Amino acid sequence: MLKRPLEDYLGYERDYPGFIEMVIRYENAVLPVCSHCGSADTAKVSAGIVSRSIHLASATTKFKLHPKPPGRFFCNTCEGYFSPEDCARPNWWDDLTESDQGE
Ligand SMILES: [Zn+2]
After folding, report:
1. How far is CA 31 from CA 40, 45, 62, in A?
2. d(C-alpha 32, C-alpha 40), whole Å
């Protein structure tokens, strides 16, 4: 979900072309559901504290910053961190969920 209107980032887009497209890619991404509570309102976690990721985290709920991430994904519902490989899922699960993207 967008936290702020994309128009707010037009100035930033001028300095970092492609930024808005990246936000939209995150918005449309199919992320794994939370392994704690099953919520689909999850975010990809990144440790890279650079200007672009700070702006990305301010733009979409699907991107979360953490200096030492305890998991690869973050749940916006129960605020827990998790990694899909922590739960017992078959190997083909990630391929399946990723191929859902944009189709
Ligand atoms: Zn959760």
Report:
1. 7, 11, 8
2. 7
Using the mean position of ligand 1's atoms as its centre, give its distance from the Cα of residue 81 in Å. Answer: 8
CA of 61 to the centre of ligand 1 (A): 14
Read off the pLDDT of residues 16-44 as tens digits, 9 standing for 90 and up: 999 999 999 999 999 999 999 999 999 99
Tokens of 49: 């504290």
The answer to whether the CB of 75 falls within 8 A of the CB of 82 is yes
Question: Would you write out the chain's pLDDT as a tens digit for each of its 103 residues?
Answer: 999 999 999 999 999 999 999 999 999 999 999 999 999 999 999 998 788 999 999 999 999 999 999 999 999 999 999 998 766 555 665 666 665 544 4
C-alpha to C-alpha distances, 91 to 7, 94, 99, nearest whole angstrom: 39, 7, 14
Distance 41 CA to ligand 1 centre (A): 8
| Cα(13) to centroid(ligand 1), Å | 32
